[in-house]
Structures are given as structure tokens and as C-alpha cells.
Amino acid sequence: MNTIARLWTTNLRWRVIALLFIGTVLNYVARNSLGVLAPALKTNLHITTAQYSYVVGAFQLSYTLMLPVCGILIDRIGLRWGFAIFAAIWSLANMAHAAAFGWISLALFRGVLGMSEAAVIPAGVKASTVWFPPRERSIAIGWVNVGTALGAVLAVPVVSGLALWFDWRAAFIGTGAMGLVWAGAWVGFYRSPANHPRLTPEEAEHIGTSGSEISQRVTLARVRLLFKSPTFWTIAVPRFLAEPAWQTFSFWIPLYLSTSRGMDLKQIALFAWMPFLAADLGGLCGGYISPYIARWFKIDLIPSRVVPISLAAVLMIAPASIGLVASPITAIALLCVGGFAHQTLSVLINTLTSDCYPAHEVGMANGFVSQAGWIGGLLFSLLIGQLADKVGFGPLFGALGAFDIVGALILIFAIRNLIPAGAKATA
Length: 427
Fold this sequence. Notes:
The protein is mainly alpha-helical. The protein folds into two domains: 209 residues, Growth Hormone, Chain: A (Up-down Bundle), CATH 1.20.1250.20; 196 residues, MFS general substrate transporter like domains (Growth Hormone, Chain: A, Up-down Bundle), CATH 1.20.1250. α4 packs antiparallel against α5 and α17 runs antiparallel to α18. The longest helix is centred in the first third of the chain and has 33 residues. The relative contact order is 0.14.
């Protein structure tokens, strides 16, 4: 009992990340509610497929544009109130979907949802930077990334269950209400390490100087300085090249299994979740493998991120080879390897922003890096829409593997640009 009590009182940082993990899960449940309810919405709101694509596009566009804005505002306001405000807005926006009466109103609510949900990754990276020493940050960010895939998996039973028990409007209201409850819990529990009454001196010493959360006004000069920095582009370009894989997995796997592998709806439901489960495992692997490599191979912090990123990029050859296999089961297995590899890689690229930027501006830095990724994902989704019927999915999946290998090579050859924030301050 004494050991359990000690763990509970000396691991406050892990309770912070556990609450953040739950918030990320609820964020992705709300985000994926539209896809689960799409058949009911098209029928009840008389929406065509083209109009539905505009609704999806409203979320993607607003999310992409707001990523750096959310990061900047969280840096300015602070994590406690900044993240809670965004969580309340996305919850209310999701509940407002129940009042939609056509595709235009649905797209409007979806756009507001995208604007506010863009806060989740910059907030997760900032919390990991503030609450964890450098050697533990990849683990913390890994758990946040697991929340993204787990939320996508849970959305199907949660949203469909609410819709079947009540109706589609109740499903939007119910998933939004969960977010409001979480926002209240976040405000009640979260404080920065410097102000948290439950933080013990031992854990404060363990966290170290990373526990400083200073609100700082963002100026145009600071943004320009960020864009002029080789550090930013060394992280942003690999993120731009990596994100198309996740967007493809999220939006195109069911259609690929149907058109290229001849699967019916039952078979798709049976197999399409597997790559996302593998992605959860990849998120955990990305978090834990970096400190393991640093400890066992006696290498510095930044190389301990770049080495597993490079190994994960090599694993992306598996989904890139999907056009060369005949068996649908083999194709699913290759997609699972791809989901695992991508999330391993994604966790560590996000961790690089927490490594290379101080706590007071990591939200801004990660927001712009994430925006670069979403721009890449959006452009590649448009490319798939134009080419899939002409050339098939095989060459497009092949391109995803090539993108990640190029991104890893950029990190390897430009690794000198990636200087830990503490080392910069010392210099």
C-alpha cells in the first residue's frame, strides 16, 4: 500500500498525461462521428456525395489553417484555460451538428469543429514539454498519439450505439457532452508544474527546468524568425512528407478495400480497424524506443529520435508494396505494418519540436509543423481523388513509402540543425 501511495503522489506528471490522453480520445470520437453517421445524414438531410465531400473539406481546411493559431493561443493563454476553452468550443460545435438542416449548416458546424479541434496536438506536445524531462517526452507524446487512433476505433461503437438507441442527433449531442465534462475536469485538475499544489519537491526536481510555462506574446517577428530557422524546416518537411500516409489510411482504406480488393461492407468492418490497432502499438513503440536506444547505445537525445524514425521509414516499404500482392489478407497485413510504422515515426517527429523549442513557444512551433503535415495530407488526398481511378491505388501507396524515406534522409543529413532547446540556451 505504501508503494501504491508513493506512486500516486510522486507521479503527478503521468496523471496529467492520462487526463490529456482521455481528452485526445474524446476529441477523435467527436471528429470521427461524422463518418460513422454519414449514411444517416445523407438520407435524413438529403445530402449528395459531392455535398458530403464539401462538409468533410470544411473540417480539413479549417483544421489546417487553425493549427498554428491554436498553438500560438495556447502559448499565450496557457494550457489550463487555453486548452479547456478549445475543448468546450469543439464540444459545443459537435453538439450543434444535431441542429443541422442541410449540408451548408452541417459544413458550418464542421468548420467550427475543425477550428477548435486543431488545438489537441499542439496542446499535447506543450504539456509533454512542460511536465516531462527530455528523456521521457517521447513516451508522453506517444500516449497522446495512442489517443488519436483509439478515439477513431471507439467512435464506431460509441456513435453507432447512441444512434441506434436514440437517433443520429442524440449521437452528436452525447459525444459533445462528453467533451464538456472533460473540459471541466481539465480546468479543475490542471496547473503548471510551478503552480500545482500536489507536485512534490522530488518530482519537481525530476522534471527540472522543463517545468517552466511562461505566457509570451507572439509577434510577427517571432513567426518570421521561426520560418527563417533551419531547425523548423528540418522538422516541417519530413512532417509534410509523412502525414499523407495517415490521411490516406484515415479516409481511403475502406474505398481501397472495396474497389481494389472486392471486399463487401461486412468484410470491411471485419478488417479495416486492424491498421488502426497497429497504429496504437506504433504510437507506444515510438514513445518507448527512443529512450531505450539512447540508454543502450549511448547516443545523444536527437540521434535517439532520428534512428527509430529512419527504421520506421524503412518499414513503410511494406504498404508501398501493396500493389504487388494478390491476397487481400496480405494487403491488410501490409497496411498494419504501415499503420505501426507511421505512428512510430509521427510520435518522434512531434517529439523533435518539444526537444528543439522552449516551453513558451513549443505550441506555436508544433502548430506550424503540424500545419505543414496537414497541407501535405490534404494535397495527397486531392491527388488520390484525381488518379485512383486512372492508375489504381498501388502506385499511390508506393509514393507514400518513398515520401517517408526521403523525409528520414532529410533528418539524417540535416541533423546538425536539430539542437536541443537546453543546449541553445546554454550557448
